[in-house]
């Protein structure tokens, strides 16, 4: 994998980026307050200003690739329809900035207020609030087609939740810095990436770390590609590390921090934003 071309250009840093579940679009969100949708089919690009006065913080796609949820620094979440280019609903409940989002059976959000909220996006209602982290929640991921959610935070912990019961299943500790990302590799394994420079693999049954990889950098984000089991780590020095088993490849990608990564699985490409 070689250095790629710029397909979206913001006037300020990119705060989040994601390839749609159907692989047709890549969406990016910037501190310039724009949501940009780029078609990977025909190369067309559409941009929408999400709010002229409030900085967006995070985003995620709906499972059907029709909507984008955007978390804002003023604590709200807006749902955008990419076909009409309009915000169609708003969710209120967090007391501080929204830090992360994940959309599975439900939409989940994590915030600086240390809570996780689970939403019915069609009604905009918060159907569940989860408390467990003692600092900002920084990452969320759903296990595919399930009620299991994993979260990570600035308190250096990873928590596995059963949302249908509204309770914690397990807590994983071992990182020596903030945990910037935690994702399911499968139903038995969680992969996490921390500010201590390590990528850790956790057994969800024993609740123990089963493998540790050293990145040699200060990670800002991580993305996992399940088909090839490759891990991409975005670093504060602008590099991207590709981890494939024990093999590590470094790419000079950005002039500043790499803030977001997303795999385009079918084309064996990696999208990055910074």
What does the model show?
This protein has 274 residues and is an all-beta fold. The chain has a domain at 12-120: YVTN repeat-like/Quinoprotein amine dehydrogenase (Methylamine Dehydrogenase, Chain H), CATH 2.130.10. It is 0% helix and 57% strand. The protein has strands spanning 14-19, 25-30, 34-39, 45-49, 56-61, 67-72, 77-81, 86-91, 98-103, 107-111, 115-120, 125-131, 137-142, 148-153, 157-162, 167-173, 179-186, 189-194, 198-203, 208-214, 219-225, 230-235, 239-244, 247-252, 260-264, 269-273. A four-stranded antiparallel sheet has the order 1-2-3-4, with no helix packed on it. A four-stranded antiparallel sheet has the order 5-6-7-8, with no helix packed on it. A hairpin with a 4-residue loop joins β21 (219-225) and β22. The model has no long low-confidence stretch (mean pLDDT 92).
What brief labels describe this structure?
274 residues, mainly beta, Methylamine Dehydrogenase, Chain H, four-stranded antiparallel sheet
Short structural summary:
The chain has 274 residues and is mostly beta strands. The chain has no helices and 26 strands.
């Amino acid at each position: 994998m070689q250095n790629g071309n710029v397909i979206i250009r913001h006037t300020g840093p990119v705060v989040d980026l994601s390839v749609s579940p159907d692989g047709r679009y890549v969406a990016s969100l910037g501190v310039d307050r724009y949501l940009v949708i780029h078609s990977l089919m025909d190369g067309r690009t559409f941009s929408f200003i999400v709010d002229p006065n409030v900085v967006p913080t995070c985003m995620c796609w709906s499972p059907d690739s029709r909507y984008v949820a955007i978390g804002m620094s003023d604590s709200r979440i807006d749902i955008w329809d990419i076909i009409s280019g309009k915000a169609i609903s708003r969710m209120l409940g967090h007391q501080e900035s929204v830090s992360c989002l994940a959309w599975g059976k439900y939409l989940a959000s994590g915030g600086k207020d240390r809570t996780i909220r689970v939403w019915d996006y069609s009604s905009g209602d918060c159907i569940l609030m989860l408390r467990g982290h003692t600092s900002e929640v920084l990452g969320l991921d759903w296990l595919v087609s399930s009620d299991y959610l994993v979260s990570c935070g600035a308190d250096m912990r990873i928590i596995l939740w059963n949302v249908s019961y509204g309770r914690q299943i397990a807590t994983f500790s071992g990182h020596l810095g903030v945990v910037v990302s935690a994702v399911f590799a499968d139903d038995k394994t969680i992969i996490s990436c921390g500010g201590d420079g390590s990528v850790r693999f956790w057994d969800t049954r024993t609740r123990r770390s089963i493998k540790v990889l050293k990145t040699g950098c200060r990670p800002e984000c991580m993305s996992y590609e399940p088909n090839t089991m490759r891990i991409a780590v975005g670093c504060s020095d602008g590099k991207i590390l590709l981890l494939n088993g024990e093999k590590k490849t470094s790419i000079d990608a950005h002039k500043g921090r790499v803030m977001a990564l997303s795999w385009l699985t079918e084309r064996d490409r990696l999208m990055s934003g910074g």
